[in-house]
Amino acid sequence: MLSQIDWSHPWYDSVRPAFARLALTDNAFIEAFNCNAAALGLRNDSGLPLRFVPQGALPEGTAYEEFIGATGQVPTRDNLHDFFNGLVWQTFPLIKRQLNALQAAQIAQAGVGKSRGPARDAATIFDENAALMVVRAGSAGRALVDELRAHCWLAALFEKRALFGPDAQVWLFGHALMEKLVAPRKAITAHTRVIFVGDDYFALGHDDQRAWLDAHVAAQLAGEGLSTSGFTPLPVLGVPGWWPGQDQDFYLDTTVFRPKRTS
Questions:
Q1: What InterPro entries is this protein classified in (predicted)?
Q2: 120 occurs within a structural domain
Q3: What global pTM score does this model have?
């Protein structure tokens, strides 16, 4: 199963270190997850040690998020979806913990119904399909974000492609998004959360940038909550340098890089 993943793709940069620490020799990853979780001291929002358990440990009629919040146990199936979920727990544990706390609180308040409600819906979208876009604060960075939000794709991703790397980064977070990108398609699109940062951030190494992002975004979620209006769509293969053939025509493909809807 895991042989399907091409780890050379840049969209796996965020979770590649967690995968490397597992030192897997086969597809049996739950035990390796638990060794790594213990070494990292991972805990849920109640302070319980985080453990990955087989899906059968989830009692019938109990919501997945509620179970994690109550026990610290993450039901895990033997598939790519849950494999990437485990890697994200080991990469951004504070964000994952806060998302679980938000979802568990919503379940405690409203129960599990056909509709999740806006807050839980936003948390689910974040958990499954989010990317974190880090942008250096300043006029150039704000112009880039404004163009992305206006769906001015050519201006943002082609004409400003030199900003990506020195002044802008994209870190994938959503585990369903990572699963979809095992078989990359041009139309795969992330729900992107923008984080403006100062010069000090870009002076950090990769691990320190990851840790800063984890703590910063988790604190934002704890303080501000979450809504779907805060996301910006971003076709993942359009990130400069993430796919070959990114010429002007690539970004003029309106089946993928769609103009913004007008009211």
A1: DUF3025
A2: no
A3: 0.94
User: Do residues 110 and 70 both lie within one domain?
Assistant: yes
Which among 26, 30, 33, 73 has a CA at the least distance from the CA of 49? 73
Q: Which domain holds residue 14?
A: 2-115
d(CA 229, CA 179): 24
DSSP 246: -
CB-side exposure of 134: number of CA atoms within 13 Å? 23
Q: Give the number of other Cβ atoms within 10 Å of residue 232's Cβ.
A: 16
Q: Is 222 exposed, middle or buried (0-12, 13-18, 19+ CB in 10 A)?
A: middle
110 and 220 part of one domain = no
The CA-atom distances, in angstroms, between 108 and each of 122, 200, 223 are: 17, 40, 19
Give the tens place of pLDDT for each residue, 130-160: 999 999 999 999 999 999 999 999 999 999 9
In the chain, the number of structural domains is: 2
